[in-house]
Amino acid sequence: MPNKAHKTIYKYKVSVLSPIHIGSGNSFELNYNMFYKNNSLYLCDEFKLMDYFLTKNPKLEYFEKEKMLLKFTEFIKNSKEIPFIRKIENNFILRNKPLLEHISSQVIKDNQILSLPYIPGSSIKGGLRTAILNGIVPGKENNKIIFNQTRNSDCQKIFNALDNKKFFKNNSLNKDRFKPNDEDFINVFKDLYISDSQSLKTKVYQSINMKKLKDHQDKRKNGNIERCKNFLECIIPEQTFEITITDKNSNKIFENLDNICTDFYKKWFEEEDYYFLDKDNKKEKDSKEEKDENKKNEYYNFLNKEQWSIIKEKVEKTKNGFLLNVGRFSGAERKTLNDYRRIQNSKAFNKDNKKDTSTTSARTYVLSSPKEVTNEKFYTNKLLPFGWLLFEKIN
């Protein structure tokens, strides 16, 4: 058991299993601060670009209204001195659509700010916090072991709050009453320091928001696909890096990270099969009504089976490890505490005031194909989920 008087350091090898998108909030427009050349996108700082032009004293013809864009673009593509932020592998024709958000960091090295794609330690910390907070909520059979293991830790206020029935209303946690008791939990997490990854390779992927139910997809027209596609810079799978997780006060609650994260994230990982693979729920003895209902609940075979089987095999062979999901587009239910931070959705109820399951079954997926897919209604055998990481403890 770690000594409370000393900090505890955990080292992990981390493998990127599926594309990860961690947005910076910045957008890049073609022929403005993003330029395409030789299957690569070049990102640049538009302010530094203007400074470059001013120092080079460009001819006025570059600023003539009718010819400016063409000449400006040609000049950029042919120049070897433009201060690009970085280049990104890209196999798509973006048709003047913005790159939704690029993954970037502002790393200071030798007093210079570098824009390098990476996975921040804060994103990993958020994933751990979600798993732990969900893990210590009592009342669920699979949480009892974790709840008892961490019960005598430094988060006594939050345990007392969870035990007290006044914090629950209709079996759901009352956010307003519970929030003040979350302070202890927040303070304990201030003791946890997680290192960033090193710079990671990225490329541009297509993404698509899909309703999983087959009944919904049958109603979709091909034209809708073109309107709801996006282009994202994502961290490429099959990369590895090492991180350290430092607990400066050796809190007991962090001793069981492997079990806690496995308990929370494994079920979501296994659920990818449920939504990706076509489920045949029909039985010979089912009535016609039951068969019709089951048919509505079928799912299209979205999954890229070849790539997903490799990912699953790697996870199954890892004995001393756990899964974590980070970044955007992986489902809000994996980023929140069940019954505490409820997912707010204005379309959560239909006109009959009944819960509309189609809104909660929507997910954004990434197209695994490196080439553009067009005129596809269902994207059969082409999709992967966002955000999966595999952690292996280093002794």
Automatic annotation (TrEMBL):
CRISPR type III-associated protein domain boundaries: 14-266
BP term (GO), one: defense response to virus
Entry keyword annotation includes RNA-binding: yes
The keyword RNA-binding belongs to this UniProt entry's keyword annotation: yes
Keywords (A to Z) from UniProt: Antiviral defense, RNA-binding
GO molecular function: RNA binding
PANTHER family named among the record's database cross-references: CRISPR SYSTEM CMS PROTEIN CSM5
Membership in a protein family: Belongs to the CRISPR-associated Csm5 family.
Function recorded in the entry: This subunit might be involved in maturation of a crRNA intermediate to its mature form.
Protein's name in the database: CRISPR system Cms protein Csm5
Species name: Helicobacter cetorum (strain ATCC BAA-429 / MIT 00-7128)
